[in-house]
Protein 1
Amino acid sequence: MASKPPVAVYDACVLYPFHLRNILIQCAFDGLVDARWTDDIHAEWIRNLAANSPGTPISRFETTRDKMKAALPEADVTNYQALIPAFSLPDPDDQHVLAAAIAGKASVIVTWNLKDFPASELEPHRVACISPDDFLVGLHSTFPDLLIDSVKRARQNLRKTLPSIDEFLTALEHQGLTAFSAILRQKVAEMA
C-alpha cells in the first residue's frame, strides 16, 4: 500500500447505521483507515440505537461493540477526558469527540454532524471533519481496488441476511451514502 491510511475518529452517528458501521469497520480491519473511538462514543450509538429499537436487548448492541473492539483493539482512545473542557463546540456533547481525535492523533472526524465541528475549532488541532459519504469517496480515490474488495467483504459478512448487491447499495443510499453508492453501482461486476 503506497499511501498511508488516514487516522479517523468514527463519531457515534456513523456507527449507528448497520451497513455504514459494517463498511467502516471492514475498511479499518483491512488497513485502509486507522480507526479511533472511545467508550463514550460506543455508549452514545448504543444508547440511541437501543432507544429506537425497543424490542432488541441492549446486550445485542454491546456484543457488537465488543466484537468491534476485539477486531480493532488499537482503535480505543483513552486519556482524552482532560482535554474536553478546552473546547467550545456548538454542541458541548460533541467535545469528547474532538478530544478523542486529538488524543488519538487523528487527522479527521467522520460524522454526519458537520455543523457541530466548525473548522475554526478543529484547524488549530490539525483535525478536519468529513461526512462518511465524502470519506468513503476519498478512500476510493486513494485505494480504489482495495476499497471495492473491502466493501465486497463487508457485504459478504452479512451471512444471515446476505442482501443482493442492489439491495445492499439501496440500503447504503438510504443511509446517506449517495456519492459512494454511485461509485459502487459503476463497479457492480467487481462486487459480485
Protein 2
Amino acid sequence: MALVCLSAFALVGCKSRASADPAPSVGSTSPEKGPSLLTEKPLNEAVIALREAVGGDVQAIELRIYPTRVVLQAQDPKRPSNVDQYIYKDGKVGKAVPVKLQGTGKLEDNLFPLSEVKLKRIPPLAGRALSELRLENAHVGFVSVKRDLPRSMGIRLRVKVQSPRKDAYWDTDVDGNPIASDAGADAAP
C-alpha cells in the first residue's frame, strides 16, 4: 500500500496520483541556468549533494529529476518515522522541509535505498522515452524514481514526456527494461 506525501510546497507523490506538480511548463520562457540535470555529470553532482544533505544511507520515497532541479523525499536517518524533502537547484541543496505522511500504508514499504538506482541509466532512458513515445515537439518534463506500489515492490522509473498537444509516461524497472504501465497519456504520476 502506498502512502501519500505532502510537503509544504506541493503534493509530490508516494502514490500513483499527484497534483500541484511543480514541473516547469512547456511554454516557459525562463532560460535554464547551466546544463540540464537530466544529463549524467550534473545529475551525479546533484545526487552527491543530496546524499550529503540527508546524511547516512539514503532511504528514499521518491527521487524526481527535472531539467533544472532534483527533488528528493527521504527518511530522516536521525528520526526514522519522519520524511523530509530536499531540493537541489542552482548547484546547492535547500533547507529540508518536513513531509506530511498520509494513508494506510507503512513507511518502510515505500522506502528504497537510493544506492540501488543506477543514475547513469537515467539520461539515456529520458532520451529513449522521447523516441518511444514519438510526440511532436516533445521534451522530458521529469523522471520519477520510486516503488511501483501497489503493483509491486520493484523500483520504477517513470519518464514524463510533454508536448504542446499531449503528455505521456514511459515506465521502466531499475535496470531500464520497459514495464507495463497503467498511466497512459495524460495520466497523473
Protein 3
Amino acid sequence: MNHAPRHGLPLYLLLAALLALPLLTTDVRAQAMAPAAETSLSQTDAVARAETFLSALDAGDWEQAHRMLDATAAAALPAAKLAEVWESLGSQLGARVERSPAQAERLGGVDVLTSRLRFPAMSLDARVHFDAAGKIDGFRIVPATTEPTPATPPPADSGITEEDRTVAGLSAKLTLPSSRAPSPAVVLVHGSGPNDMDETIGPNKPFRDIAHGLAARGVAVLRYHKRTKQRPQDFTPTSTLDDESIDDALDAVALLRAEPRVDAKRINVAGHSLGGLVAPRIASRDSELGGIILLAAPARKTHHVVPLQVRYIAQLDGTIDEAEAKSIAEFDAQRDAIDSMLDGGPEPETLMFGGSAAYWRDLGGYDPVRTAESLTLPILVLQGGRDYQITAADDFSRWQAFAQGRSQVQTRLFPKLNHLFIAGEGASTPQEYLQPGQVDSSVIDAMATWIGAL
C-alpha cells in the first residue's frame, strides 16, 4: 500500500492541523510566538530580511537560512530540520503554486512578516518575527488567514432552502426543509482548527453534506464559521474551550429558539471531533436542549491522544526513522509536561501546537464522559471504524461502556467510515482527507431517525 511519504513527523502533524483534524489548535495561537521585545528594524528592512530568509529556503540554502535565526530558534530548528519542514510541504500538499511577497502585519499585538504559500490542496502562511538585533526569533507555518470558503448551496431541485444568519458576529447558514411546519433542528459544532461552516477539509465538506442531508429528511440545520476561522483576533493567551467553541454554540442554539419555523423543544447539538468532545459541556449549560449527537467524539485526554496519532502516522510505512522517533519523543515529553502542570507543577515552556497554559488546563482537565454522566437528555454516539484519530478501540469503547444501563444513550459503529464519516478501504491516512468524498448516507439516516424519534 502506498502510505504517506517519509519526510518526518512535523509535517504530518502540520497537515493534520491544517486539515482541522481533532485536538490540534495551532490556528488560535499566533500570540505564542511573541518575544519579549519588539524589533528595531524598519519595516522595509524587515520585509527584505524575511524575503532573504524565505528565498534561502526556496533555494535549499539551509545553512544561510539557519544563520538568520537567533540562538534559541537555531537550537530548536537546526538546518536539517528547516530542510525537512520546507521540503515536506510540497510532498504532502502538491507542488507549490505561488509564494507571495512578504508583507508586514500585526497579529495579537506582535509585528510579523507573512508570506502566503499557495498549494493545490490549501494555502499556508509562513510567518517570521525578528528580535531587536534583527535575528529571527519566531518562524511558523500556519493555516492561511483567509476569508472562510463560501458555503455550497443546496441542489436547486432539492426543495430545501438556505438563509443567511449571524451567530455572535460569525457568518452562518440556516438550512430549512421544504415542510412549513415547525421542524426539529440541529446546531453543528466543528472539530478543532480554523473551520468554515462547511467544515471544509481539502475537497470535502462534511457539514454541508450533513446540513443538506438532514434538511432533505425534515430537519433544520444551523451551521456557522468557527471563530478561529473568521475572527482569530478574538483569541488571547487566556482563551479556553468556551472561547473556541462552547459560547458560540450556545448562541447558535438561542438563535434557533427564536426561529418560528423551528420547534424550540426539539433543538439538538451535533458535534464532530472536538465538537463532540464539548457537546456534553454545551448540554450541561443548556437544560432545554432536546439531545446531543457525538460524531467521532474523543473520550480520552486530548494531550494523551496526540502522541498516539503521531505514532500511528509514523508507522504507516512499516518503520519509524530517526526523525520520526525524535518527534514522538518530543510529543511524549509535552504530554508528560501537561500532566505535570495539571497535577500542580510548573507551566511548561513549550506546549502542544503553541497552545497556551490556560487552554491546555481547560482541555486537559475536562472529561466529556464524566460530564455526560450528569446529563439526562438523549445522546447519540456515532463512530467510524476506520478512524485512526478517535478510535473505536480507545474512544468509542468508553462511550459504549457509558451507554450500558442508560436507555437514553444510543451508540452505533460504521466499520468502513473514516474520521470524516466518508467510506474507504484499508488503513486510513492523512492523505485520504484530500480525496473527494461525501458523508455516508447511512450516518445522515441514523441522525435523522434518532432526531425524529425524540
Protein 4
Amino acid sequence: MPTPEIHWYPGHIAKAEKALVDQLNRVDVVLEVRDARIPLSTRHPKVETWVGEKPRVLVINRIDMISDAAKTAWEAWLRQQGETPYFTNGQQGQGVKAIAKAAQAAGEAVNQRRQARGMNPRPIRAVVIGFPNVGKSALINRLLNRKVVASARRAGITRQLRWIRLSGDLDLLDAPGVIPSRMDNQEAALKLAICDDIGEAAYDTQCTAAAFLDVLKGLEYTQSSDTYQDILRERYGVDLSDYTGEGFVEQVAAQKFQDNQERTAKRILNDFRTGLLGPWVLEWPPTK
C-alpha cells in the first residue's frame, strides 16, 4: 500500500513560528522535546537554525511508551551523535528534575557574563519547543508540581506563548507546537499522524491505520524482540502476517466491528497511542 498523503495548512503554522522566533532572542536555553516513539521524525528541521549558539537540552519524552531496549539503543546512538539526551515521562514526572538542573547549568554562563559586567544575576530564561502533542505542557506542569498549562493527549492544546516562573532561578516560555510549513518526508509525516503528533484534519484515519500496520510489519524483521504479531493476534484475533495493513483493518472490521472500517481504524490507532498494544517504537536508530 502506498504511503498516504499527509497535509496541513501553513497559515497558522507560520504565525506560531514567527511568534516563537521573535521570542528566541530573549531566551538563554532551549529545551527541545521529542516523542520517544519517533525521535527522528519529531526533530524539527529548523531547530539548529533557530537555536544558533544557544545551549540546547534534548528531551526525549514518553519513555513509558517504549521498551527498555529501545531506550538503550536510542541513548547510545544519540550520544554517538554528540547529543546528551534526557529521557522523561512528563505524565508521571520521571526524569523531570534532571531537565531543570540541565537548563540551569546550561544557562549559568549568562549570569557569569553579567557578574563580569558588574550586573546582578537574573533567572535563566528557557523555552520549551517541539512538535504538537509531544508532551511539552505536561513536562512544564511536572516541573512546577502544579497544573498551570493545559495538557491533553491531542495536538494543538497550547495556543499562545506565555512565560512561567518556575523558581527564583528559572523562567520557562511555553510555546505552541511548531511543525514545518511543509513536510517533504512523507514517511516522517505518516509517523506524526500515527502518534497523534499532528491534528486529525491532516490525515485519513483508515489509510493511516493501514499504513501503521505496514510499518509494524517492516519493523518485525529488524527487531524480533518486539512481538508485534503476537500482541495484535491476541487483541484482534487476526494474524497480521496473513494480510496487508489494509486487509488487516478490513478483516478486523468484519469480525469485530460490523464492517465499520472507520471505527476499526480509530480503535487500532487509539490502542497504540494509549499504550494498550505495549511499549512500541516506530523508529530505531539508523544502522548506517
